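Input (structure):
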């Protein structure tokens, strides 16, 4: 990857835009470090003007004060949105979160173990036959997708459209045709979810799939409306189908490029839970957003109602004030208070399932392939938007005897 010259940092910061094509393959870590150490509260003119918060302490402060920093504007293009319960603030947020929590508890994640392992082994069998794979499309994406299909009782034929809609939450279409395709896919998925809700109501919603549970659920003493359920299903779909895929692709790529560290995990699988937490810190979701709803001051900077704030996780998760040797991957890091799943009232509900999926994926992958590397003559392809992720990587594998 190309590095940005330090002399260009000020100019780059003034117009910092995560969708800039010139940044997609750039080595941004030195730039993020410079922002955190030199401009901890910065301002970019891109995206119609956004405050950038990059130190761990400040990101945590924003998370823990939803009465000042509202969740109404979380993602690009920083417009107020109505995804339930993501874009609600306490106390309204609490009731919706409470009804969803049991569906994404540690126990519910553990119940997915057999399915996840069966799917992982099936995918791995195909990779073994071919001697390698494109790891995103052939492993990192279909594994969490299968879990989604099971939990949501979704028609498998609709999965490609759903993945397209989910990815759009993090990567905007590049042209007019892409927008048309996205709009058509979104309308199709909304229609499908409405049909599911209608069918569940007609059948009595006795199943344990997520749509049935939402039809049976009540919030503040009333049943959810069809619009509310479709809204929530869309949000859960996006969360289920993209972020875990991106994290798993990042991990496999890093381990393929660092074979000595890969060998550590293969030799001692007990390291895996802490290693996953370290990878979540090391390459987190790039940013999250908030809207200022109450005038406040942060590090001497006044922020006014209507201002947008970008929490730059990639800088905060490598803050040396919090993390020792932050630019290294330490499987035995003693204290790892990363904020990749958030903090405060909006902490990610899907964190348990995400962690469990990652653990099963890597356990099964390493059991089958103790050695693997990036295919010679190729390099990982990356994307930079809300998620800094590997969008494609060709791996060759050496199967276990």
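Output (sequence):
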């Amino acid at each position: 990857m190309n590095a940005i010259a330090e002399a260009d940092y000020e100019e780059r910061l003034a117009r910092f835009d995560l969708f800039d094509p010139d940044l997609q393959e750039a080595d941004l870590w030195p730039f993020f470090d410079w922002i955190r150490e030199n401009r901890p509260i910065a301002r970019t003119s891109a995206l119609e003007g956004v405050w950038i918060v990059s130190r761990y302490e400040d990101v945590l402060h924003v998370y823990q004060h939803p009465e000042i920093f509202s969740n109404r504007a979380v993602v690009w293009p920083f417009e107020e949105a109505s995804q339930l319960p993501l874009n609600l603030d306490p106390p309204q947020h609490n009731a919706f979160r409470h009804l969803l929590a049991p569906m994404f508890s540690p126990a519910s994640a553990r119940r997915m173990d057999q399915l996840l392992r069966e799917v992982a082994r099936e995918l791995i069998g195909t990779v073994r036959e071919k001697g390698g794979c494109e790891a995103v499309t052939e492993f990192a994406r279909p594994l969490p997708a299968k879990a989604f299909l099971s939990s949501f009782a979704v028609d498998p034929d609709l999965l490609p459209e759903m993945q397209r809609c989910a990815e759009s939450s993090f990567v905007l279409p590049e042209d007019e045709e892409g927008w048309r395709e996205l709009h058509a896919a979104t309308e199709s998925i909304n229609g499908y979810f409405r049909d599911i809700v209608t069918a569940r109501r007609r059948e009595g919603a006795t199943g344990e799939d997520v749509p049935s549970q939402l039809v049976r659920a009540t919030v503040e003493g009333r049943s959810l409306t069809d619009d509310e359920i479709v809204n929530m299903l869309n949000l859960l779909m996006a969360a289920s189908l993209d972020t875990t895929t991106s994290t798993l692709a990042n991990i496999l790529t890093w381990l393929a490029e660092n074979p000595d560290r890969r060998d550590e995990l293969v030799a001692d699988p007990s390291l895996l839970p802490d290693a996953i937490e370290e990878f979540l810190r090391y390459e987190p979701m790039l940013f999250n957003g908030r809207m200022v709803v109450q005038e406040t001051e942060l590090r001497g900077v006044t922020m006014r109602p209507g201002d947008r704030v970008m929490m730059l996780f990639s800088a905060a998760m490598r803050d040396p004030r919090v993390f020792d040797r932050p630019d290294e991957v330490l499987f035995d890091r003693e204290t790892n208070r990363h904020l990749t799943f958030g903090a405060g009232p909006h902490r990610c509900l899907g964190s348990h399932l995400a962690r469990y999926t990652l653990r099963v994926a890597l356990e099964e992958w390493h059991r089958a392939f103790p050695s693997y590397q990036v295919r010679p003559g190729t390099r990982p392809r990356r994307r930079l938007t809300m998620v800094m992720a590997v969008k494609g990587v060709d791996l060759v594998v050496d199967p276990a005897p």
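Notes: The mean pLDDT is 87. The longest helix spans residues 176-203.
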